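Re: the multi-chain job from yesterday

Posting the exact lines I submitted so nobody has to dig through the queue logs.
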Amino acid sequence: MKPKSLIAKDAFSKTIVWVFLLAVVLYCLFPFAWMLSTSLKTEAEAFRIPPTWIPIKPTIDSFIGIWVRKNFGIYFFNSTVISLATAVLSTFFGALAGYGFSRFFFRGRRFLIGFFLATQMLPGVLLVGPYFKILSKVGLYDTRTGLIIAFLTICLPFSTWMMKGFIDKVPDELDQSAMVDGCSRMGIFFKIILPVVSPGMVATILFAFLLAWGDLLWALCLTSSEPMITVTLGIARTVGEFRIIWPMLMAGSLVGGMPAIILYVFLQRLLVQGLTAGAVKE
Amino acid sequence: MRIKDRHMWTFFVLPGILLLVLVLGFPAITSVLYSIKPEQASGGSYTFSQYSNLLKDPFFKTTFWNTAVFVSLSVATHMILGLAIAMVLNSALPAKPLFRLIALLPWVVPDVVAGIIWKWMFDPIYGAINDVLLKIGLIHSPMEWLSNPKLALFSVILVNLWRGFPFVMLILLAGLQAIPRELYEAAAIDGASKADTFFHITIPGLKKMIVVALALDIVWEVRRFGLIQAMTQGGPGVLTEVLSTYTYKQYFQFFRFEYASAISVVMTVVLLLVSLPYIWMISQEE
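And the result, structure tokens for all chains:
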């Protein structure tokens, strides 16, 4: 049996841990709660002094307003199409390259891996200027296609690295035995590897999707007209307006953040796996 | 056996490489060329005058300094909070997945959304933060979080702590889970103190993950754009201006393409230097 002082010490440190955890939970969640609360207020109530914490007369007017009075539908559509296309493209090319790096030990392999890693480090602002000029020249400025091409620069390096991590975990014997059976490399890749790593592909697609969905810089530099802009840019523009209607902006932010949150909640385990096993090798 | 179709690597790796060279390498080099473009439209030789302009620009100096403060404080606080939470989550704890889920939420939402929520919370009159602080008596008059010159940068860093610690926590938690439990049990039997265990088992066991988290976090914080753009757009004045927002302004508000390129090239060089140990470490393992 432990002496009394030790038991007290145990209880004390346990309390500390729980108080700490509670504070962390509060810190993480409070901003979301405030966003939700504001989004349900009328404009008049949002400007009450002191602020009310729970809306007196909750209303979903703002949630209707962003679709009806603002072009949120268009933004949402653009963001979805652009992010999805980027995610699928970069995951496909990433899987190809990831397989190549995982299975072949060619000269210059280490250098090319270093190159892929280095490209992850480049800042977006290094590229937005040339992109603006080049896309304008070829008529892709202010188009969804232009943004998809641009987002590949952020996503492809990550996708390659994540997919390589997942493919590394598939034993090479699988490839070998398929080859003995007369399967070609391409056959192995498409018919054996891709199905085996499909959870990893989902994680990679998700991660690339979140990267593209969350961007502001590129959308700000490469699109401008209402029919082409993304959710994040739509939200950012509202902040720049002369008079900010906070309930509406909070409703927009909530809806704009929702796809990321929902995808994440459902695919949490996969994403965590992908990040820690692929982007970060053990 | 595997030697037989050795050349097939090109089929798999080359499309990705070519794509990267096309969509990333080519614009990157273009940007470098902009930065040394001759000043006269016709002829003239390449010049480094944009770079010497940088040194003369007081705003650039402020921006550079802001970035250094922003990044170092952000990364340091991410590491401390991230490690603390990861250690708590790694101990026997009920509802661990739920806590991990909650702790990751700030990291999942878009930068802009994070920035805007906090901008609204920081509102001096209608915001939640002043309301709470006034009610519990910590302050006696509303604070101007984002417009007070002395506070603005630190308010932004505080938001960035919220935004960025989850990633570090995630990486370090993965590292902690890889440390064998037996090591801790053995240490406990030998009567090692908590501090001893921390410095002789936890930290050495985490070394690699710490390098990874540090490198990636530094790179991400240097590039951080949407958060600041949404909250302050670099203001008041240039007090929360960082290299990424400053470059953006030079490009798209002042249309000084050559000058903006020069800033971004400097940024790139810094980023590559910072991440070199990480790149080296990872590619050596291959």
